[in-house]
Amino acid sequence: MFNTNTIKRGIIFACLLLLVTGCKLGRHSDSDVIKIRLAHPMAPGNNVTLGYEKFAELVNKKSGGKIVVEVYGSSMLGSDRVAMESVQRGSLEMASSSSPNMANFSPYFMIFDLPYITDIKYQQKIYDALDNGSLGSFFDRLAEEINLKPIMFSEYGYRNFVTTGQPISSVDTLKKLKVRVTASPVEIEVAKALGMSPTPIAWGETYTAMQQGTVDAEGNTFSLLSDSKHDEVIRYAVDSRHNYSMHILMVNKDYWKALPVEAKKIIKEAADEALIYQRSITAALEKKAEQKFLDEGIKIHKLTPEELAEYKARTRPVWDLFTAKIPAELFTMVQEIQQ
User: Fold this and answer.
1) 280 φ, ψ to 5°?
2) What is the average pLDDT across 222-230?
3) What are the pLDDT digits (tens) for 136-156?
């Protein structure tokens, strides 16, 4: 005769075994269809969002439906940091984080946060160095150390300061503003160098913080601010272009290694093609958002060469604060792009 407790334990064990096996099947080990969840924080219609939607479309097409990328935007699966931590642990396959928020995982990512470290006129050189050059190889090695693998260095753009009520133009007009920043130490120090009061707030909470007066300023691309409806609370802006950012799509390193060779090839080809598309639409979307701001009555101050020079002069000492935390070779690689 069977013991009742033994039977119960057997049923529970069988259920757990089925659950674990089912999870594996749902990933890629034994299933005909590989399902990959991709989490990112960006709003619908944003250049980053459109790039990942194109990536998912291309993966599906190239694989004949055998690989499906499920895109979860607008922080549905958590903020940049939360989603990327899930990828590190292996509970999520892919996530995208802005380069400032990647500083949570390694201080070396702060290189791109440094004020005026690069300029839009060097964009193609940046792309080449990331996609096929020493800069991309450096970040491949860095990501592997933190259990990640880069898939796409998506274009985010150049951040500009905006406010809910105070007109802004020259550096001195920023003084004492409470500005939302990411957790990046560089962003925080840039705000301080400009006489602002930095307040780290997760992106998903920024609209409410601006609306309720917790902060009265933020820095971001016009296109993302527009896509996220921040133009509903913004009244003034300045084209400071003080910070260049990317959105870096990462996959769990072990998950990537376990994928079939053909699947990796398809994903890489789709990522390369989606990246070309994503970068090609960014400038037009930024211009469109800027015009929308003007049409809505948002005042945008265009910096004169002298005013821009003052922004650079005030923030340049920030570089010196982080030279000990960022390898000299990384500084060299980025600065070589500027020639």
Assistant:
1) -70, -25
2) 96
3) 999 999 999 999 999 999 999
Tell me the pTM.
0.85
Helical residues (DSSP H) of the chain, grouped into ranges = 4-27, 47-63, 80-89, 123-132, 134-145, 185-193, 206-212, 222-227, 253-258, 261-295, 305-315, 317-321, 328-337
Q: Is 195 exposed, middle or buried, given 0-12, 13-18 or 19+ CB atoms closer than 10 A?
A: middle
Token code pair at residue 157: 């753009």
d(CA 178, CA 107): 25
Q: Which tokens sit at 188? A: 């925080």
Cβ atoms of residues 136 and 115 within 8 Å: no
Of 20, 83, 35, the residue nearest 247 (C-alpha): 83
Mean predicted confidence (pLDDT) in 172-199: 96
State the Cα angle at 37 between 33 and 38, rounded to 5°: 135
User: Which of 191, 172, 217, 229 has the alpha carbon at shortest distance from 100?
Assistant: 191
Give the tokens for residue 11: 């049923």
Return d(Cα 217, Cα 240) in angstroms, integer.
Answer: 13
Pair type for strands 178-181 and 299-301: unpaired
Report the alpha-carbon distance of residue 193 to residue 191 in Å, rounded.
5
Mean pLDDT to the nearest integer, 158-169: 97
Sign of CA dihedral 328, 329, 330, 332: positive
Q: How many CA atoms within 13 Å lie on the side-chain side of 163?
A: 19
Show the tokens assigned to 230: 């921040």
Residue closest to 96 by CA, chosen among 115, 116, 76, 111: 76
Integer Cα distance of 221 and 268 in angstroms: 28
Q: How far, in Å, CA of 52 to CA of 74, rounded? A: 12
Single-letter residue type at 230: H
The model's pLDDT over 272-320, given as tens digits with 9 standing for 90+, comes to: 999 999 999 999 999 999 999 999 999 999 999 999 999 999 999 999 9
- Residue 122 scores a pLDDT above 50: yes
